[in-house]
Amino acid sequence: MKVVLPGGTGQVGAILDRALTAAGHEVTVVTRRPTRAHDVGWDGATLGRWATAIDGCDVVINLAGRSVSCRYTAENLRAMMDSRVDSTRVVGEAIAAAARPPRVWLQMSTATVYAHRFDAPHDETTGVIGGSEAGVPDYWAYSVEIAKNWERAQAEAPTPDTRKVALRSAMVMSPDRGGVFDVLSRLVRLGLGGPVAGGAQYVSWIQDEDFVRAVEFLIARDDLDGPVNLASPDPLSHRAFMRALRTAWNVPVGLPATRWMAELGAFALRSDTELLFKSRRVVPGRLRAAGFSFAHPDWESAATSLVQRARSARSAVPRGVS
């Protein structure tokens, strides 16, 4: 199978590149900074020679977009919007122009599209799209607009011969350096892995191996299109989430953080507190209904597995090499 990964050099792209290549598929990564033999360059906004990789491929998985790990300034929010919408639009143009278009286009989206909510989980049918919640920062609504415009750019692309799926993904947990699991694990090992702002907000997540398996499942299932939640069936409160992570690392205590402490920490890390404070209670309704079975459905066992893999990777690094 020939797979093209626009924007495939980030954490999620690296996970898919590694897994799909190991499974024997031919993977081409479309990136602004091509350095490897299977990389192809682009600018993320205009058609170019890179589009020839899409003509004749089997699957496109578009992951392009500015990282959300930044301060949510007006400039950065606009860059997030433009990079997602522009890249999705031009991928659609490449597919539309292809003599042999791919049979399926998986488009990265985000579970952030759903409302900040504590009372009930969001699935694709009954979930409430966010943007009008009371008592949350005004700029949270812009994050929802980014997600809606991202999905709209794919839905409106004139690609009648290509099935389209929008991946409303929760946080992908992997032991790779720099990913969200790695950052949270470092906080835990420093004794800072307690609940933030009370810890009642829900955390939705998916283990990296299940993310890959879900992508493969969606590629194979010709009857599934439109938005699909990629999240474990076990969203849990931030308090319980961090407690399970501390247990996996065998760290008994984690200092809690108040809202203002989290604001200071996010500023120091050049990140934003929406990633911590927004309650994301998302469940995989369509995946489960279609018969997908999670290898890591609960966070306790998933965290234990990820910690074991992280420890193995660290022990495999020669002494003195970072």
Automatic annotation (TrEMBL):
This is TIGR01777 family oxidoreductase. PANTHER family: EPIMERASE FAMILY PROTEIN SDR39U1 (PTHR11092:SF0), SUGAR NUCLEOTIDE EPIMERASE RELATED (PTHR11092). SUPFAM superfamilies: NAD(P)-binding Rossmann-fold domains (SSF51735). It comes from Streptomyces gottesmaniae. Belongs to the NAD(P)-dependent epimerase/dehydratase family. SDR39U1 subfamily. Residues 272-304 form the DUF1731 domain. Residues 5-222 form the NAD-dependent epimerase/dehydratase domain. Pfam families: DUF1731 (PF08338), Epimerase (PF01370). Coiled coil: none annotated. InterPro entries: DUF1731, Epimerase_deHydtase, NAD(P)-bd_dom_sf, SDR39U1.
